[in-house]
Design a protein that fits this description.
The complex is a heterodimer of chains A (about 350) and B (about 325). With about 350 residues, chain A is an alpha/beta fold. Chain A has 13 helices and 12 strands. Chain A is about 35% helix and about 25% strand. In chain A, the strands form 2 sheets. Chain A has an 8-stranded mixed sheet with strand order 6-7-8-3-9-10-12-11, with helices on both faces. In chain A, strands 2-1-4-5 form a 4-stranded antiparallel sheet, with helices on one face. The chains are: A alpha/beta (about 350), B mainly alpha (about 325). Chain B: Belongs to the binding-protein-dependent transport system permease family.
Chain lengths: ~350, ~325
Amino acid sequence: MTETLLSVRDLKVSYQVGKGSIDAVDGASFDVPRGSIVGLVGESGCGKTTVARALTRVIADNASITGGQILFDGQDIAALPEREMNALRWRDIAFIPQSAMNSLDPVYTVEYQLNEVLRRRGGLGRRQARARCEELFEMVGIEAGRLGDYPHQFSGGMRQRVAIALALALNPKLVIADEPVTALDVIVQRQILDQLRELQSMLGISVILVTHDISVVAYVCDRTVVMYAGRIAEAGPMDAVLMEPSHPYTMGLRNAFPDLKGAASGVLTPIEGAPPNLAFPPPGCRFAPRCPFAVETCTTQQPALGMVAPDHRVSCHRADEAAKLRQEAARTETWLADA
Amino acid sequence: MSHLKAMASRALQLALVLWAVVTILFLMFRLMPGNPMAAYIDPTFTVEQQEALMAQFGLDKPLWEQYLIYLGNLLQGELGQSFRYREPVAERLMTLLPNTLILTFSSLIVAYTFGILAGAYLAWRRGSVVENTAIPLVLTTRAMPEFWLGMVLLAVFSFWLGWFPAGGTRPAGASYDSLWALYTSREFLSYLALPALTLAIYSQGLPLLLMRSNMLDVMKEDFVTMARIKGLSNWSVVVRHAARNALLPVMTSFAIAVGYQLQGNVVVESVFSWPGLGRELVNAVSASDYPLAQGAFLMIAVVVILMNLIADLLYSLLDPRISHA
């Protein structure tokens, strides 16, 4: 039994658009250790949801995995025949969607939807399934009396709990949570994240938490993977990546969010500009057009994902100057002057 | 408790709609040009005789008084006497209603069963050659006039191939112990086949296209994607989740289609000499048989209103979001 549950190697996912194709994920590599929560963070369109969905191999009709490996428990599931992949779904890899409102079928009761998974996928009998339903509802803190209710009868936070219960139904090894709290208000967000963390450590499962909100990552994750324009910018232990970021993009993200420890640090500094059009990605580093520290090599050569510290990888030509860049990045002028 | 209240307000609404229909019918026939008695009264009658008859039918009374009498009669189920047949309208219509209902429901059940299955299939096979040929074909059937389609089917299957009788509901001179015996006889089915097929071909386009476009929408819903991520079988994903949800508006349209079909029947019943409400209505209007026409209109309106009520109930039965709201 290895320490790493999931290892994504040089994953490429393309969307067919008209006659051309767009590489939404262009060579993503990261690891998910057993029993950890890994935050996959990045702005809209950076490919994080595409990565998440690629792990289930249920992707859009016009999308396809065009390269790389997804080693799950040592087995490359990117190359698995559909039948075998389907056997793995939900039993080993479960999914918590962003909007539990739309992801629960409105015409069936919650118990029906739990049963569907427990009995059809888990092979449980009627009584066992009922007992498991009650157990799952207790785990997520909803009274069993509400099992017979329809999705629309629950509040947003409750529905998200139902989605968590559904994901845990078959004791999966990996749960992929795609923006699980984005649609909720901050108080409920915290409750749901606490619950997710608690259940994760209790059950010893691994979680990939996809989010655009770096404070969510700081709140629950053990490790962070920062994505930018279809590539991994930086990956490593959460503290190391967020407290001592080595990629200018991560530094910029830090400035653009309220202080993670809650102390009022003053002004928020946005990263000017917008991510590149992935149909025509810039040569070299994809962040270069927005990067205040870009030098000539950055616009011509694609940086490799290199090691800056044990277990901490960064894809930046100036990674060895990170300490100096961090100081400069802390000043608002650095980001505005470049715009 | 709120359930009872909803039912009560629904019933009140129905009563109001019914009253409006009844009133419009009353005024419509009295505003129509021509003397309602023209068909009934022999031209050789003297003026006194004519006036005596007008008085006998209550047509000499002021309009409001006629209206009150009419309402009172309706409440007792009294639809008046047919001018032409000289028999109670209610009785005559009740013998025709079953024929119309059987024709309507048999054709619609065929149309909807076929339409729903084919629509779901075409959504599933989106972009294929099958779909690309089927859609224009369906649109063609939708565009064909019913009477024309009926006549083509008559020409081919009745006159040319001789597989089915040309019109009516039973062989000449045949008699049956009861209506039930007639409706369950094989002869009746062979008489029913062509008109029902005509209506079915005409009606299948709506449920088919509706089901197809609903399916295409629902297939994009998150819960369908989730069903796939859950590793459920294709059948579960497409039928249990996608089709089940896509079906909701189609089922409602069924109940409403029954109402529309009753009007469509007018044409097909005439083509196939099918003794139903529609044909009777046409005959009654052209013969200025006002009580009969009025009664037929009313009966069609009642069926339409009832089917709308059933559509509502059906929806709340099929969609928990409505019934638990």
